[in-house]
Give the backbone structure.
Amino acid sequence: MLNRVKKIVHGIRNLFALSARKVFVIPTISIAPRQCAFIGKTLITVVLLGALGYGIYRHPPFQSVPQGEVGVRINQFTGSVSEWRNGNVWVIPGLYQMRVYSLRDQVYHPREIRSATGSAPLQSIEGLSFGVDLSVRYALDPLKITALAKTGPDDISKGLVESAVQGVIYKVFANYTMREIFSNKRVEIQQLIEKEVSSSLAGDGIVLRHVQIGNIDLPAEYRRGMESLLAEELATQKMRYTLELKEKQVKQSALEAEAEKARRETEAQAAASEQVIAAKAQEEAMKHVLPFKEKQIQQRQLEAEADKVARIRGAEGSAQARRIEAEGEADARQKLADAEVYRAEHMGKTNAEQMEREGALVTKHPLLIQKTLADKLSDKVQVIIASPPAGGGFIGANLLGASAARTARSNETAGAE
């Protein structure tokens, strides 16, 4: 490589030297060979510097390594290898070769095996073509990046992962039937693919994380047959489940009947036990109730006798109180009678004395009778027309008549008494 560069540079110098000799030759003035050589070297230097600047501009002598990736710089002359992470790396074109690898998990998702009618479908042991939605998750081993950069291809996914995965999946799926692939052997197939692919990629510095088997695209004829078979199986399973359900219902009814029978027996035993316990309790209670009843009867007899005695004593007390009241009432009546007699006697004497005084006063002044009568009749009689008596007696004698005469005689008799 270095000899080739030297030859190219030497050829360019010779070419520019020849051109400079031809250009700077003037018909009348000739330039010295030494000056011509100096000019040629200057032009060559300028051209080389321009070419170098253009090459640096088009191909910068450094390369950046992003976070989560690792850069491997290989010296093309010595073969030494160095790793760089998270920064810029000085890479001289022609001297160094730089490869950048991602340390993050990557996914290989083959498209040609997805469909049963695709370009490269898988085949079962019966020879039926089918498709599988397969995802392979992997990552590069950081400890083997250097060896991978030296011997590995530029595209790890197509160069190593694709070949390893395809070499395993066609072989593994060809050992199983179509029914096993999409039903009961799916997990086993996935584990077997993971095991073989992991061992195949481990030697190349690739760590297998996980293999995921997604949707399986069945052949059209097989799908139709499976649909009819599944319909029959579903009908059979439905019938079996129906029979099992009926059988369980019968067993449930029998168990419920037995449980009801046991419950009734238990309830009857419990009721009988309750009655026995209640009878025993009543018997025990009667042992204490009878003496209590006897004591109550005795107490009631004593209470009746005490009530009788109290009533007798109350009656005696009432009779005695009535006798005392009668005696007191008789004494009071006697005293009232005596007082009434005394009052009548005293009032009689008082009236007699008053009438005596009034008789003496009327005898002395006879016109007082007329005045008294006029005062008594003043509010009832407005005008009294009466002729005076012939003998000059009382003016109301003619009005009162015999009653007045009787009254007068009684008054005289009372006055005489």
